[in-house]
Amino acid sequence: MYNWDKLVQDDRVHRTVYTDPQIFDEEMVKVFGQHTWVYLAHESELPEVNDYKTGYLGKRPIIIQRDQQGKIRAIFNRCTHRGATLCRMESGKAKQFTCPYHGWNFKNDGSFVGAPWPKAYGDQLKSPEFNLKQARVETYKGFIFGTLNEAGPSLEEYLGNAKVLLDQWLEHNGGAENIRITSNAHRKLMKCNWKFVYDNAADGYHVTFSHRSLLGINERYLKAGEKESDMVYFTQKPDDGPMYVQYLGNGHIFLDQRPSYQGGDGKFWSQQRPQPGREALEEQMVQKYGEKAYRYLDQAVGSQMNLTIFPNLLLVGNQIQVVEPIAADQTQIVWYATTINGYPEEINTLRMRTQEDFPAFGEPDDVTNWAECQRGLSIPEVEWVFLNRGLTMTEAHHVDENGVITAPVTDELPIRGYFSEWKRIMSESKVKADYESIRREMSY
Which of 25-34, 148-157, 350-359 has the lowest mean pLDDT? Predict the structure, then answer.
């Protein structure tokens, strides 16, 4: 039994919350199962009846399926006979799934159809226990989430204060009815605990130091008279600047770069890093679309919002990033570029090019640092990870009527906030009680 109050304190967390395999296993049951809504997929990835994609709910392999009636389901990708995975493709279309091991057959709503040579089973196959097990599923404006808590809050209740920001992200990206995932994902396998991704998601403190090469490119290409370019504003006394971070509740966190982009149409576009053919494309867009051109071009680049829905969904720029825990010291992050239905082809092409920008030229800096943090935390004699930046600067913190806490962009408030929720969840005793009950039942 862990003393969670000792491991997670107001200004620090113990190294073992990142390194202990037993803590990781408990996270996979509590955090990625029983006490949160886990992001699974976007509805645009399942546009038609019988479409599916495979994925994970924590470490549980699942099939996210639009069944024959159009209902979205999250079915455990595990034959109820002997445990083999049923579906071994990343995505496709199927009315039924047949186990490759012994041929057991299931409808895409999870119901058991039959097994080869059923006579040997007598009447046993009529039992509902052979149906595929499923998670509870709800969607919010195209985002599909799953949980194993049948009695817990609704998805909208869980999203809470994050809903308003999610709506703003969707509005910037053409609206919920138009956002699409149409391309393959960009994946990175990392030697670090999944929480390092979360620590970094709303961290405005690291940018100046971790991303020096990227900032150097930006600064070299500043036009005469310009003082700011994308991300360069993080180097200019960010403690006192207009950007901010927020703790939204339920583990959700937010970093807002938009205050550094005040102005009309074209402001986002004008501050982006140089891209091959940028000037020629801009000229063509203006000639073709007139005054709408810069509104379109603004949506070709990122939203300047870093919204993170606990425990595994990050909306970064115009991309959807998903955290997939694998082990205490191994994580995969998956980036999905988005397009906007009905928008000019040039804009969606540019949005796809951003898939080659920060994920390729900025994220490697972060991935390296996270792996080195994991390596550093292998030292047992140095126990603590400190999260105390801004902790005592209460005059710089603002709490609104909804309980949202706002702080300067370099404050470690978001990390302290989500760890408070992590500790609350991990302190729940239900899982331990269930394990002990199973052990008693199976003892001889």
Answer: 350-359
Residue 366 confidence class, pLDDT cut points 50, 70, 90: confident
Residue appearing with tokens 């900032």: 215
Q: Which of 62-66, 181-185, 392-396, 438-442 has the highest mean pLDDT?
A: 62-66
Q: List % helix, strand, coil for the chain (3-state, nearest 5).
A: 40, 25, 40
CA distance 266 to 287: 15
For 3, residues 6+ apart whose C-beta sits below 8 A from its C-beta are none
Name which of 321, 277, 322, 323 is nearest 300 in CA terms.
277
Give the whole-angstrom CA distance, residue 296 versus residue 347. 7
116: cis peptide before it, omega within 30°?
no
CB 241 within 8 A of CB 255: no
Q: Mean per-residue pLDDT for 297-308?
A: 89
Note whether 155 and 145 are within 8 A (CB). Answer: yes
CA neighbor of 20 nearest in space, from 182, 274, 195, 138: 195
Q: Cβ atoms within 10 A of the Cβ of 127, count?
A: 11
Residues in the chain: 444
State residue 384 phi and psi, 5-degree precision. -110, 145
Retrieve residue 350's tokens: 């540019």
- DSSP H or E run through 183: none
DSSP string, 259-306: GGG-SSTTHHHHTSPP-TTHHHHHHHHHHHHGGGHHHHHHTTS--SEE
Separation CA 99–CA 102 (nearest Å): 6
- Which DSSP letter does residue 238 get? G
**Nearest alpha carbon to residue 41 among 185, 171, 157:** 185
Give every CB contact of residue 113 below 8 A, 6+ residues apart in sequence: 96, 105, 106, 107
Can you list the alpha helix ranges (DSSP code H) found in 202-277? 207-210, 212-220, 267-270
Cα-Cα-Cα-Cα dihedral of 207, 208, 211, 215, to 10°? 120
* pLDDT range class, residue 179, cuts 50, 70, 90: very high
For residues 236 and 227, give the distance between their C-alpha atoms in angstroms, rounded to a whole number: 10
Structure tokens at 266: 């074209």
98: exposed, middle or buried (Cβ count in 10 Å: 0-12, 13-18, 19+): middle
Q: Where are the beta strands (DSSP E) in 108-208?
A: 112-114, 134-140, 143-147, 179-180, 186-190
